[in-house]
Every structure is written in structure tokens, then in C-alpha cells.
Design brief:
By secondary structure, the chain is an alpha+beta fold. It is 33% helix and 28% strand. The protein has a single domain (3-168), classed as Aminopeptidase, CATH 3.40.630. It has helices at residues 16-30, 37-41, 45-62, 113-121, 136-144, and strands spanning 7-10, 68-73, 79-87, 97-104, 127-132, 148-155, 162-168. Strands 1-2-3-4-5-7-6 form a 7-stranded mixed sheet, sandwiched between helices. Strand 6 and strand 7 form a beta hairpin. It is globular, with a radius of gyration of 15 Å. One of its GO terms (molecular function) is acyltransferase activity, transferring groups other than amino-acyl groups.
């Protein structure tokens, strides 16, 4: 499917069940070999959908401080990924804006949709992001978009998987 067959739109309450399934499928595929297999096997589509419902409810009540989540849909309306960004969550944030996630199913990768998501969520502003250290594909994408290793390190709380913070200055 070409780039033009994919559409971006804001996350809506009715997307949460499907997004829970898509989000966990992307994690199982992307992080295989990077995170423990038992952790990935235990991911719950339903718990993830519940988390997305909380995001929608919080956004509807508080406006979420400018945070945005866009879903990627095909011509039939099926979800194939999402992206999220908003105010930095880090106490020592070197920028005010953070790209929280760009998660795409394999059928949409390489179509240009990741670039569209990035442009809509981050644009030309300075931003940070966290990426699993072994996720070479994501790191290459972010480097192409002007990000460099900022030096910040952390671990994914549930697995101990090393993460690195990347930054792009405006």
C-alpha cells in the first residue's frame, strides 16, 4: 500500500480496543530479541486498550497539556499504528517537547507514514525521545530526522532493557 492510502487522525475512544491489539502486536514484533520473551508473551491487549481509554478520558477532561496521539488508518479504517508526543515527562528535560512513540505495524513501515507522523507531532521544534538501545531501525530513523544520542540512560522498568535518550535542537 502506498503512503497515500494511509490516513492520520486523532485517537478517539472507539479506537482503543483495536489500538490495544495493534500496539501490543507492534511491541511483540519490534522488541523480540531485545526484551525478555516471557514479558512480550505476557503483554495484554486488553490492559493496553484500558490504558488508551484512560488517555482519551484524561485528554477530554484536562486537555493533556498539549499531548497528542494520532492513529494511522488504512482505506478501510483499520488501524496500523500510532504516534504520540507532548510535553517532556523527564525531570531533567533538555527540551520542553518529547516524542513519546512512533509504533507502526510491518505493513505500513517504509511507506513514509512515520515521517508524516513525525512531522505532525514534532515538526521543526526541539525535542527529546527515549529509544531502546538495541532498536537500530528506530535509531536510524531518528538520526535521519536530526536526533543524536544525548547521553541520558535509563532502563525499561518492567524488563531492565537499556534505553537511551536522543535529542534534536531546533
Amino acid at each position: 500500500m502506498t503512503e497515500h492510502a494511509w490516513h492520520l487522525r486523532p485517537l478517539a475512544a472507539e479506537d482503543c480496543d483495536e489500538l490495544g491489539r495493534v500496539h501490543m502486536a507492534v511491541w511483540r514484533e519490534t522488541y523480540a530479541g531485545l526484551m525478555p520473551a516471557d514479558y512480550l508473551a505476557g503483554l495484554s491487549d486488553e490492559r493496553c486498550a484500558d490504558t488508551w481509554r484512560e488517555v482519551v478520558a484524561r485528554r477530554d477532561v484536562t486537555g493533556s497539556g498539549g499531548a497528542r496521539t494520532l492513529v494511522v488508518v488504512d482505506g478501510e479504517g483499520d488501524l496500523a499504528g500510532f504516534g504520540s508526543a507532548g510535553p517532556s515527562r523527564d525531570e531533567d528535560a533538555p527540551t520542553a517537547w518529547e516524542l513519546y512513540a512512533v509504533n507502526l505495524t510491518s505493513r505500513v513501515r517504509g511507506t513514509g507514514v512515520a515521517d508524516r507522523l513525525f512531522d505532525d507531532l514534532v515538526g521543526a521544534r526541539a525535542a527529546t525521545l527515549w529509544v531502546v538501545e538495541g532498536n537500530a531501525r528506530a535509531q536510524a530513523f531518528y538520526r535521519r530526522r536530526g536526533f543524536v544520542d544525548e547521553g541520558g540512560r535509563d532502563v525499561h522498568p518492567a524488563t531492565g532493557t537499556p534505553e537511551m535518550r536522543m535529542i534534536r535542537r531546533a
